[in-house]
Design goal:
single chain; about 280 residues; Glutaredoxin; four-stranded mixed sheet; Glutathione S-transferase Yfyf (Class Pi), Chain A, domain 2; 2 domains; 4 strands; about 5% strand
């Protein structure tokens, strides 16, 4: 791979050698790459995921539901190692044709069915249990708006900033600057909102906070992309800092963050830092 200026050809063709850390598993086609059945446990919900920000959204919600007394929210959490290509196994692709974690099998009723995309899973569970989602029209709309804001923002932070800052095989100043700018803009959006409101959707903690915390909280506290918090000067977002500390104090959040943690996160931090992840 060259770091010289690139002139795109008239028609793009896949160059596997340009795939970087994920070259062995990524390709421009969808579908299963191998036959692999998924394990199934005894609980009503079967979650296939990894403790990345998108994965933590759902495990935090499950733990919050259990903490709130919803005993029917018991779940089995199965680790899907995306670096090993587990997401391209036939069983997982049957649950999520987009081959991204998390994916959920809901067996709580007479007929099991799949739910994929973290926002869809959170919305499904919140509505099913009548929890962490306002029922009032205006408050519900605010909650959904912030939830969808987070879903739309994540690719700029993860696939944009995180990829080019931490994972790309070469450092491209333009790409890092572009997505660092966008990540800081998104932090500023949330910081301004949290300066006027206790939580994103208002006075009450909701799935919008859980989804957003999984991304912004991990970054703010230095547990993502080689301590990108320092590079991005995230300590200047004081309202986010207040909100992060309040959410982190919740026991269910502490538990949810520890489910199916990726080994890469553990390897990049000392044992003491790992303990602090949910402290």
């Amino acid at each position: 791979m060259s770091d010289t200026e690139y002139t795109p050809p008239k028609v793009w063709t896949w160059n596997k050698d340009n795939g970087g850390q994920f070259a062995a598993i990524n390709r421009p086609t969808s579908g299963a790459q191998c036959e692999k059945e998924l394990p199934v446990g005894e609980h009503p919900f079967q979650l296939y995921s990894l403790g990345t920000p998108n994965g933590q959204k759902v495990t935090i919600l499950f733990e919050e539901l259990l903490e709130a007394g919803h005993k029917d929210a018991e779940y089995d959490a199965w680790l899907v190692n995306i670096r090993d290509g587990d997401q391209f196994g036939s069983g997982f692709v049957a649950l999520n044709p987009n081959s991204k974690i998390p994916a959920l099998l809901d067996r709580s009723g007479p007929e099991p069915f799949r739910v994929f995309e973290s926002g869809a899973i959170m919305l499904h569970l919140a509505e099913k249990f009548g929890a962490f989602m306002p029922s009032d029209g205006k408050a519900r709309a605010e909650c959904l708006s912030w939830l969808m804001w987070q879903m739309g923002s994540a690719p700029f932070i993860g696939g944009g900033f995180g990829h080019f800052y931490a994972y790309a095989p070469i450092k491209i100043e333009y790409a890092i600057d572009r997505y660092a700018m966008e990540t800081k803009r998104l932090f500023d959006v949330a910081d301004k909102r949290l300066a006027e409101s206790r939580f994103l959707a208002g006075d009450d903690y909701s799935i919008a906070d859980m989804a957003t915390y999984a991304w912004l909280g991990l970054l703010y506290r230095g547990f993502a992309y080689n301590d990108a918090a320092t590079f991005l000067s995230l300590d200047e977002y004081t309202s986010i800092g207040r909100w992060v500390e309040e959410i982190l104090a919740r026991p269910a959040v502490k538990r949810g963050q520890k489910v199916n943690l990726p080994t890469g996160l553990i390897e990049r931090h000392s044992a003491a830092d790992f303990d602090k992840l949910a402290d």
